[in-house]
Design brief:
With 493 residues, this protein is an alpha/beta fold. The protein has four domains: 128 residues, Rossmann fold, CATH 3.40.50; 96 residues, PAS domain (Beta-Lactamase), CATH 3.30.450; 68 residues; 151 residues, Heat Shock Protein 90. 47% of the residues lie in helices and 23% in strands. The structure holds adenosine-5'-triphosphate and magnesium ion. Magnesium ion (MG) binds next to helix 11. The site of magnesium ion has 5 residues, from helix 11.
Amino acid sequence: MSQEVPRILVVDDELGIREGCRKIFSVEGYGVEVACNGLEGLETFKSQGSFSVVLVDLNMPKMGGLELIEHLRELDDDVVIFVITAYATIETAVEATRKGAYGYIPKPFTPDELLLPVRNGLERRALTLESKRLREERERRLLELAVERSRSSTIISCMSDGVLVINRDRQIVLRNAAANRIIPGCDALPQVAGLDALCSSEIQALVDEVLSQQARPGIASKELVFEKLTFLVNVSQVLEPSGEVSGAVAVLRDITPLKQLETAKTLFMSMVAHEFKSPLYAVEGLLSSVVGGVGGPDPERDRHFIERSLLRIKTLQALVSDLLNLTAMETGRFTVNRLPLDITPVLHEVTETCRDHAMDQKIDLSIVDLPADKPLFVLADREALTIVLTNLVDNAIKYSPEGGQVRVCVDRDPSYTRVHIQDNGIGMSPEEQEHVFDEFFRAKNKKAIHVPGTGLGLSLVKRLVDLHQGRISVRSAPDKGSTFTVSLPNCSY
Ligand SMILES: Nc1ncnc2c1ncn2[C@@H]1O[C@H](COP(=O)(O)OP(=O)(O)OP(=O)(O)O)[C@@H](O)[C@H]1O
Ligand SMILES: [Mg+2]
């Protein structure tokens, strides 16, 4: 409550009354101002303000008491107004009260007859002001609470993690849209539902564990699977400021991509191990035969075994280089320097590199329809483009029977230059084509059973093409052949 000295305004045209009141109130320690008519009273009230009590005479020149009361009420709801008059009638008293006067003090009055009602009025005013302040405070708090609640619930409802809030009576008192989506049947539960109604005994067990835990703040976690997706469920205690457990919060985070990555990594490791194992065992077997010399010395046979060993070692070298390139790309260490590059000489170089391989396989390898005198500029890294094209031409040769044909041709539109590597080899089924760019994928074609390879070549090719903001596609049919097309952005300058 305010400790300020109450200020009182006395408005009366009788000097004696004004000065008498001033004296009585001053002795009591109140602040006093006086005015000799309604108009002056109103001016004083307006200019000095913050009066707690106003005493108003009814009959005054310039502005009468009733009119003044009316103006004062418009200016201040809480000021306590007393009518002081010697000519009181019931009617005027009623009228004055109707206009907002709090009480009525008949003249003449003794100091006590004046002070008692004024003290009462002041007390009433203090109470009114206090309850008003409390009401305003409560409304402000309620507003803050409402804003805070709506902010928190907006945040919780926007979260992609599922959130459940459970009170200590094992009731789910809040859950967000993600929780409804993740936990089967959760969206059908009433707004406040018992924990036992939740279709997950694992979450129930985690919550119970946390609610009964002595440790602060208790947390329990578990990986759970809902609808083929894996979630990390963390349940934590909600603590009162006193440290008492008032409930629990369960947060469900989708960790499916992490799990898939983990599985892919394990699969990748076991595939790599497997890919190393078979050529190493083969080389060991071949070289042991040479060293053991079973069946006596035979230089011809030894040479054959050593050559086969070298071939397997070459496969291993290719595997190591593919793996190093792939990991370099994964870790962002592989950089492509895309510069304006005429692909015509690159195509000639690649076909020449693969020429021996083609001749071994009796494959007719040629570049067709290449404009001899016109450069074909693309934006590419020469080394990366060489790896891409060599892999594709090498595959076309590898997966074609003896006497087959491999053709390399180019076409171009204003945005892209497309290189087509076409063979009339063993081809692939639509299902095989879907996986052809996956790491370690090798089609199970009986005709290619003895063709060496690791299944990493095309995944490397795809990544390199992606780094060029290019595209790679395949069209193929079993026993008819395949065409791989690489599209590279043209160099626009
Ligand atoms: N031109 C093609 N014709 C038919 N099948 C093909 C062709 N190119 C690729 N394939 C199929 O796609 C698989 C994956 O090819 P990829 O180049 O990635 O691996 P790879 O040739 O087996 O081994 P390497 O890592 O040594 O290249 C091949 O094993 C083969 O089954
Ligand atoms: Mg290959």
